[in-house]
Amino acid sequence: MMINNVNVERVNALNNVQNTKRTSNAAKSTFGEDSVSISKEAIAKADEFYMNQVAAETPDVRADRIAEVKAKLQDPNYLNNAVIASAADKIMESFGL
Predict the structure, then answer these.
(1) pLDDT < 50 regions, the chain
(2) If DSSP states are collapsed to H, E and C, what string results for the chain?
(3) Cα atoms in the 13 Å half-sphere on the side-chain side of 85
(4) What pLDDT score was predicted for residue 7?
(5) What distance in Å separates the CA atoms of residue 41 and residue 86, rounded to the nearest whole number?
(6) Which of 28, 40, 72, 94 holds its CA 20 to 30 A away from the CA of 12?
(7) Residues 6+ apart with CB under 8 A from 79
(8) How far apart are CA 7 and CA 15, in angstroms?
């Protein structure tokens, strides 16, 4: 497809008008800073969503490990000072203390 007789003067005049409008509009638009405020309810909903997502991604409880621990706890020789101290240390470590 060929386009003949393109009037370059008309195209240039049109570009000049468009450029003038752009610069005049840009000079007029002076806005302050943008800000965003999030309600406490939205923050609570976001936290709830995050916790539900973490719960959904967490693997199910391992019944075999629970049965193993229950069997160890029923043995009176298992609970000694070393085991209790080790468990206490791991609990404190998980709390970051």
Answers:
(1) none
(2) CCCCCCCHHHHHHHHHHHHHHHHHHHHHCCCCCCCCCCCHHHHHHHHHHHHHHHHHHCCCCCHHHHHHHHHHHHCCCCCCHHHHHHHHHHHHHHCCC
(3) 3
(4) 55
(5) 41
(6) 28
(7) 73
(8) 13
Structure tokens at 12: 């240039």
In this prediction, residue 43 carries a pLDDT of 94
75 close to 68: Cβ distance less than 8 angstroms: no
Report the amino acid identity of residue 72. K
Predicted confidence at residue 55, as pLDDT, reads: 87
With a CB cutoff of 8 Å and minimum separation 6, the contacts of 78 are 72
Kindly report the pTM of this predicted structure: 0.31
CA distance 73 to 96: 26
